[in-house]
Amino acid sequence: MNWENRLSKDAQSIKASEIRELLKILEDPEILSFAGGIPDPQLFPMDRVRDIRINLEKNPAADRQAMQYSQTEGYAPLRDWIADRCSTENTILERENVLITNGAQQSLTLLSTIFLEAGTKLAVASPTYLGALQVFGTRRPDYITVDTDENGIIPESLEEAFKKGARLFYTIPDFQNPGGMTIPEDRRVRIIELAHQYDVVIFEDTAYRTLYYDAPPPPSLLELEGAFLGKGQWQEKGLVIQMGTASKTLMPALRVGWTTAPKIILDKMVLLKQANDLHTSTLNQIIAHELFFNGLDEHVAILREVYGKRRDAMLDALRQYIPNSASYTVPKGGMFVWITLPEGMDAKDLLEKSIAHEKLAFVPGKAFFADEKGANTLRLSFSTCSPDVIRDGMKRLCALIQREQMAQVA
Ligand SMILES: Cc1ncc(COP(=O)(O)O)c(C=O)c1O
C-alpha cells in the first residue's frame, strides 16, 4: 500500500524534525542537556496542587463537576481572570474575548486553520519558535522572513516584509524563543503603526512574558495597540491577537493556554476547537485558576530568583570562556541564550561532537529559521541546571568551540 499517495497535500508537507530525532539522545541520563526549553520540575507548585485536590474532594458535587465535560470556551472564572489581567486602560477585554486552549500550541493551531492556506503570506522572525513553524508549515504558507538583531525584530525589515504583501505576522516580543531578545518599546510602537498602515494581523505570543529577571518587559503589543487606537476601539479595529500559557509559570502538563481576540475571531476559534477536542480539561482549568488566583505572584517571584541566577551563571561563563569569534545574546528573561558560532562552523556537526566527547547537548539553530539559514547558530537553555553545572557545561562547550575553530584553521 502506498500510503503517501493517499495523504492530503497538507499531510504530505509534514516532515519529522531532524533536530527532534537527534535530541532523542537526551533520554540518556548521562547527557547534560541545555537543549529543552522546559521549566524545572523541581519548581512545580506540587503542594499547592495537592491542597487544591484535597479541597475539591471536600465538596463532592464540585469534585464531580471538575471531572465532567464543560463548555468549549473554557472555565468562566479562568476566562474572567485572564480578561482582567490582559485588559488595559484603553482596551477592556471581556470574558467573550478569551478562549482557553490546550496550551498556546493549540492557539497557534486554531489560528493557523483560521488564517492560513497554501500560499498565504506570513511574516516570521529569523529565528523564531520552532513549534510555531511546525504548525504553520502544515498549512503551507508563503513565509517572508524578518531580520532581527539584539533588540529583536528590525522595523525596516518588517516594513519590507509588509511591502511584499504579508497578511499576518507572528512574533514573541518578550525574551524570545529561541533568541532571548526583547523588543524595546519604540520598536513595538513602530510595529503597531506598520501593522495598521499595511493592514497586517499580528499573532503576539507572550509565553515568557512574566519570567523577567531584571525589569518587567515593555508594554505588550496588545496594550500599545490600545493606546494607538484610542479607548474602546480595539473590539472593532484591533489587529493584535494575543496568546498566553500556564506552561512556563505553572506546569506544562496542565495544557492550559489562552487566546484573546476580537469576538468575531474568537467565535470562529470556539467552533473550531469544539470540532477538534470539545474543551480543555475541566479539572486542569480549575487547578490553573486556583494557582493563578491565589499566590501567583509569590510563586513567580521564586521562579525569577532561581532562573535569574541560572541566567547569570550562563552569561558569566560565556563572558569568560567563549572565543572572540563567537557571540551570544544577553536575555533579560525567559529561558534562552542564543549563540552565533564562527562563520562556517556547523552547529549540527558541533552537536554530534559535543554529545560524543562532552556528553553535552544544545539545539542547533537552523530549525528555528523559516528560510534554511542559521547553520552556525545554536540555542542554549539555562532553565533546568544549577549554576555550578551551567558554569562547568559552558566552560566545556566553549573549549569545544575553540578546538573546532583551531581545527578549521589548520
Ligand atoms: C514561544 C512559545 N510559544 C508557545 C509554546 C507552547 O506552549 P504550550 O505549552 O502552552 O503549548 C512554547 C513552548 O515552548 C513557546 O516557547
Number of helices: 17
Tell me the number of structural domains.
2
Count of extended strands:
14
CATH class designation of the largest domain: Alpha Beta
End-to-end span in angstroms? Answer: 52 Å
CATH fold-type name of the largest domain: Aspartate Aminotransferase, domain 2
Please describe what this structure looks like:
The chain has 410 residues and is an alpha/beta fold. It has two domains: 3-45 and 298-409, Aspartate Aminotransferase, domain 1; 69-293, Type I PLP-dependent aspartate aminotransferase-like (Major domain) (Aspartate Aminotransferase, domain 2). Helix content is 46%, strand content 14%. It is built from 17 helices and 14 strands. It has helices at residues 3-6, 9-12, 18-22, 46-57, 60-66, 76-86, 103-115, 130-137, 155-163, 185-198, 221-229, 234-237, 263-277, 282-293, 296-321, 347-358, 387-409, and strands at residues 32-33, 98-101, 121-126, 142-149, 152-153, 168-171, 201-205, 240-245, 257-260, 327-328, 336-340, 360-361, 363-364, 377-381. The chain has an eight-stranded mixed sheet, sandwiched between helices. β6, α10 and β7 form a beta-alpha-beta unit. α7 packs parallel to α8. The longest helix has 26 residues, at 296-321. The mean pLDDT is 95.
